[in-house]
Design brief:
Helices cover about 30% and strands about 25% of the residues. It is an alpha/beta fold and about 625 residues long. It is globular.
């Protein structure tokens, strides 16, 4: 474990020390969608341009403690603006830039965040400022009867450095001083602003330095969004203090051509990278054996999987497919974290555990094999009586404690029982912005009947420890309870995904609805995206029948409804997490039924099923 961070150490002081020691060191390189190194920042470049932003902020009416929304397309301008805000004591609030293709939803979310944090201004650069004021945005706003929040927009790329540079930055004197607000992705509720302190940042980057083996020789590659905690904290902030030379890419560059990720790592001899689970499946599908044979990934020391559940079949397919690149199987590094813990909780998962599915439904952990743990990337489990989980690693931070607690009684769960994951750590955030009463319950929870003086963060995630490694089973809010039995939605979604070749990988969502009047059975609904937007009636019947059959066979569940649609039917966060609550709301409101190329098919009517809504088709 790392030593506890010094109370006077912080990111700004570390960066200025680096500026004095090694101003010419390269920190960031931005790679465009063709794989060309488009922009580069040395320590001196970043110091000068961040200082220019810090000097400009007071003239723009922003005082220490004020909140500024950072609205940037993927670029190094975001890094400059973020550090400039910290230097001036202004609290940066990174947000996802509204997408013209999803304007109504994105502007509503943007407006909600702006109001929630009381933002005083928006910081951006020329690329987005131009788009915001362009005629196409104006016409879109008029058509949808929307307007931007009444905030002043400022372009930070117009700020000019002062020479010679003598930074007079507002160095925090206490670790409890607030550094920035990190808004959650909203996978199970409305986005909330996590209050991250300078002490949280310092503890996180110091823990990552040791656990991930970071050094000035590290070469990182990251396409994860800069406004997401994984991209911002694990890559941007670690790099700012000199722990890496990091190559940043746009998430759209990756999604449009996933092989660019691997091409870049091959070219720069990358040592570290990270991505959510879906990315590993995607790059396997979108690359060819010939391409993989031409890549050398032997320099990779850590390829972290975080941000969503790690699926064992994903690990196996990825490691098998990329074995010819020289990628060491030991480099695959599952981890568990959340914004409320300034990201990391456990790291370095190495085990795969096969469990009795029926026992798991009752909250019990019952390994099925005599030697129940297998190495990462082991063979795929096809036994419907069992389920396989990938470990998320061990607690590696000094001063941290992670416990498994019964969420109803708030008492420790006995060994072999699933409970809620509670965390106390130097990286535990100060709370949610403006939610004092709720913060007491969620960030300072007490363990009942225990002498433990600690106050814990209630993560809302369920899991257990096995041989000191944490296994995460799912979100408590997403847990499906059918006939009094616990069913994890990701298991149902995995069955649906494997049911038919036309089901789009990563394009399934499962949830339950309340029982209908006169019936005590919860209704199971599954959203399924297909690879093709248009299917004929026979293809639809085949997919729906296959999905229902696999779910019934694997889980003993009958689907009340299967919603079939093209890409985008399953609602997700910007980091790729399935928003099951939003899918449920879209189903109940009827919004999903009117979407183009979407078909909602229900079971035949019975005492415990409802009739279809007008315009829906029915299948037997």
């Amino acid at each position: 474990m790392t030593a506890a961070p010094s109370p006077t150490a912080n990111l700004l002081r570390s960066f200025l020390d680096l500026y004095e020691r090694d101003p010419d060191r390269a920190l960031f390189t931005f790679v465009d969608d063709r794989g060309v190194d488009r922009q580069r920042l040395t320590v001196a470049d970043l110091a000068g341009q961040a200082d220019a932003v810090a000097r400009a902020l007071p003239g723009w009416g922003l005082a220490p403690g004020d909140r500024a929304l950072l609205v940037y397309p993927p670029s190094l301008d975001f890094v400059i603006a973020f550090l400039g805000c910290l230097a001036a004591g202004v609290l940066p609030v990174p947000v996802c830039p509204p997408d013209p293709l999803h304007l109504r939803h994105d502007v509503a979310a943007f407006s909600q965040i702006a109001a929630d944090c009381g933002a005083r201004a928006v910081l951006t650069n020329s690329a987005y400022e131009w788009a915001r004021t362009a005629g196409n945005f104006t016409s879109l706003f008029a058509r949808h009867r929307m307007r931007w929040p009444d905030l002043t927009w400022r372009r930070t790329d117009r700020a000019r450095p002062v020479e010679p540079l003598r930074p007079r930055w507002r160095i925090p004197h206490h670790p409890e001083q607030v550094a920035f607000l990190q808004y959650t992705s909203g996978s199970t509720s409305a986005p909330r602003g996590v209050v991250v302190t300078h002490g949280n940042i310092q503890a996180e980057v110091e823990a990552n330095t040791e656990a991930l083996g970071l050094s000035p020789d590290t070469r990182g590659v990251c396409w994860v969004p800069h406004f997401h905690d994984l991209g911002l904290i694990s890559f941007v902030l670690s790099t700012v203090i000199g722990n890496s030379h990091t190559y940043l890419m746009s998430p759209m560059s990756f999604l449009q051509r996933p092989t660019l990720w691997m091409e870049t790592m091959h070219r720069v001899r990358a040592t570290h990278t990270a991505a959510p689970n879906f990315a590993f499946d995607l790059v396997v599908r979108k690359s060819t054996p010939e391409q993989r044979a031409g890549w050398d990934l032997s320099a990779l020391q850590v390829i972290c999987s975080g941000g969503e559940p790690v699926r064992p079949q994903t690990v196996r397919r990825f490691l098998d497919a990329f074995a010819p690149t020289g990628l060491a199987r030991s480099a695959f590094y599952p981890a568990y974290g959340l914004a409320e813990a300034t990201l990391g909780v456990t790291m370095g998962g190495s085990a795969v555990l096969r469990l009795d599915r029926a026992a798991l439904a009752d909250g019990c952990v019952v390994p099925l094999a005599a030697e129940d743990t297998e190495r990462m990337g082991a063979g795929e489990n096809k036994d419907s009586r069992s389920t396989t989980l990938v470990g998320s690693g061990r607690v590696r931070k000094a001063g941290s404690r992670v416990r498994i607690i019964d969420p109803e009684t708030c008492k420790p769960s006995p060994p072999g029982r699933i409970g809620e994951i509670w965390v106390d750590s130097p990286t535990k955030a100060a709370g949610y912005y403006g939610l004092g009463k709720e913060n007491e319950a969620l960030f300072r929870a007490e363990v009942e009947g225990d002498d433990d003086p600690r106050r814990y963060l209630r993560t809302g995630d369920l899991g257990f420890f096995h041989r000191e490694e944490l296994f995460v089973t799912g979100r408590r809010k997403d847990l499906m309870i059918v006939h009094g039995r616990n069913v994890y939605p990701q298991d149902v979604e995995a069955s649906a995904a494997q049911a038919h070749p036309l089901v789009r990988p990563g394009g399934t969502a499962a949830f339950t609805l309340e029982p209908e009047p006169g019936c005590d059975t919860e209704r199971v609904v599954v959203f399924v995206e297909t690879r093709q937007t248009r299917l004929d009636s026979e293809q639809r019947y085949e997919v729906i029948t296959a999905v229902r059959h696999h779910i019934r066979l694997d889980h003993g569940l009958t689907c009340h409804a299967v919603v079939l649609g093209g890409p985008g039917t399953v609602i997700k966060t910007t980091s790729g997490k399935v928003r099951r609550g939003a899918c449920r709301q879209a189903f109940l409101s009827g919004a999903v039924h009117s979407a183009p190329a979407t078909l909602a098919v229900h079971e035949r009517p019975s005492a415990c099923t409802s009739t279809t809504l007008p315009g829906q088709e029915r299948t037997r």
